[in-house]
Amino acid sequence: AGRIIAWGRAKDWVWALGDAMGSYANVRTARRLLAVRLSAACPCVVVADWVVPSETGRHRYDWLLHTASGNGLVLNGGNGAAIIRGSVHSRELHLLHRAASPVRMTCDEWADHPRLRAISHGQAFVALTALGTGSLQAIPNEAGARGVKWLDALGAGKAILRWRPIRGFPTAMRLELPEADLVIDLSMKMFVP
Q1: Whole-angstrom Cα distance, residue 158 to residue 187?
Q2: Band of residue 1 on the pLDDT scale cut at 50, 70, 90
Q3: pTM, full prediction
């Protein structure tokens, strides 16, 4: 089973870091960081995922999002973007998903609930997902590091997931929330306010 290993609040952001090692077989690392931006002007949920299998080679990774019954899902160009149309409040929520490997998105239903599936293949799984408004983009290699950056629709907030690949595996995983002056290290459990 999974467990929360750290959590906190910094300015408009609240976050929790989970370790899901006990939830999966043949996994060396399984971490998920959830950060919620509590902003009336531009709220957002950011999810950072990091899974490293215990065996080498390429693996298939399925990232799933289950929604409430009655919601609608619309793929937006097949490039890691989707729109969730709410049945209760008639609102739209934009979802952006970027992984270290190319992603193919599909929609289906599970037990009467619309479900979004993002499929990627690689030696490990690294992804940044944002639910809200804005854009996700790859960060060019900076001194051997790779990353994904989310910018909100107002251009004020951002979240950056960075890692350093060693022999194809992502290491030194960290999520930066600059507007909160916060860096969360997923790999070492160190937190820098």
Answers
A1: 21
A2: low
A3: 0.85
